[in-house]
Amino acid sequence: MLTHTQITYFLTIARCRSFSEAARQLFITQSAISKQISNLEKQLDIKLFERNNKTTRLTPAGEVLCRELQKYDEWLAYIVSIAKLAEQGKNGSLNIGILHGVDLSDSAAPLLQAFSKAYPENNIHVRRLFFQDIVSELLQGSVDLVIALSFLVPSHMNISQHVIRSERDMIIVAKTNSAGKTENIIARDLISDTFVTISPDISRQAYKNSLGYLNGLGITPVNVKLVNTIEDIMLNVESGLGFGVSSQSCRLFGKEHIRFVDMYKSVGVERHMTDVVAVWHKNCVNPSVISYINFISSEKI
């Protein structure tokens, strides 16, 4: 097996057509470079150079080896260059998990598109996952980054997060629902309706967040339907089987058959907010993650 040093010495002599000039350019003695080439010829059992007092030229075998090693040298330089880009987070892959039921068209999607344009050599892969799997997927390295809603991110010492943007929470209800048919929905319109929310057995924080929104309006729901996922909430709301609480990152935002009502605005109290966050493992060694976090920290959406 040829070493990188042997390849460098051989190609330098071939380019200079002189052992003494090659030695000068490589900052070594002529005897040292002559010994390296002599050892290489013995190792390969090939005579590489014809030498006399005035000239040094490649043998036919040397010409072939030189031509092929030049290709190798160029290929190796290319490999090193893209490895350096990967180290800087400019080249590589970024696997991103997106929560089921969450729509990113107004929040994370523009940033992903801008990042992809700024770092075109980065391969970005996105897939859906359930919020119950955020920590395990990150710790196992199945995903590098997760885009989530802050109240759905479990507290964990090895998890970091960055706020992409804050959104106001609102009541979501189908227009076919009895409360949804009311022109100006007020608190008492919702008291007897079914409130759909994440079960505290699945996420106590999500349960407390949604009930906290209603309590801030003075609403204590009579009927509460507990479900397992955000998507379950969306399906029940779409079906007219109750109402829920969500921000505009809900996939139903902007749908004609669904009403989003900012109840806090109507009663003149401080708004209830949810953060859209990027979440990653603190010990993640993928440079693309840090590049993405730095990028979104400097961008405005």
Word description of this protein:
There is one protein chain. With about 300 residues, this protein is α/β, with parallel strands linked by helices. It has 3 domains: about 5-85, Arc Repressor Mutant, subunit A (Orthogonal Bundle); about 95-165 and about 275-300, Periplasmic binding protein-like II (D-Maltodextrin-Binding Protein, domain 2); about 170-270, 3-Layer(aba) Sandwich (D-Maltodextrin-Binding Protein, domain 2), CATH 3.40.190. About 40% of the residues lie in helices and about 25% in strands. It is built from 11 helices and 12 strands. Strands 4-3-5-12-6 form a 5-stranded mixed beta sheet. The chain has a 3-stranded antiparallel beta sheet with strand order 10-7-11, with helices on one face. The longest helix has 28 residues, at about 60-85. The mean pLDDT is about 85.
Shape: rod-shaped
Low-pLDDT stretches: none
Beta-strand segment tally: 12
Major sheet: size, sense and barrel closure? 5 strands, mixed
Within the largest sheet, what's the order of strands?
A: 4-3-5-12-6
- The mean pLDDT is 85
Q: Determine the CATH superfamily of the largest domain.
A: Periplasmic binding protein-like II
> What's the number of domains?
3
Secondary-structure content class:
alpha/beta
Number of helices: 11
CATH architecture of the largest domain: 3-Layer(aba) Sandwich
The CATH topology label of the largest domain is D-Maltodextrin-Binding Protein, domain 2
End-to-end separation = 54 Å
The whole-angstrom Rg is: 32 Å
What share of residues are in beta strands? 15-25%
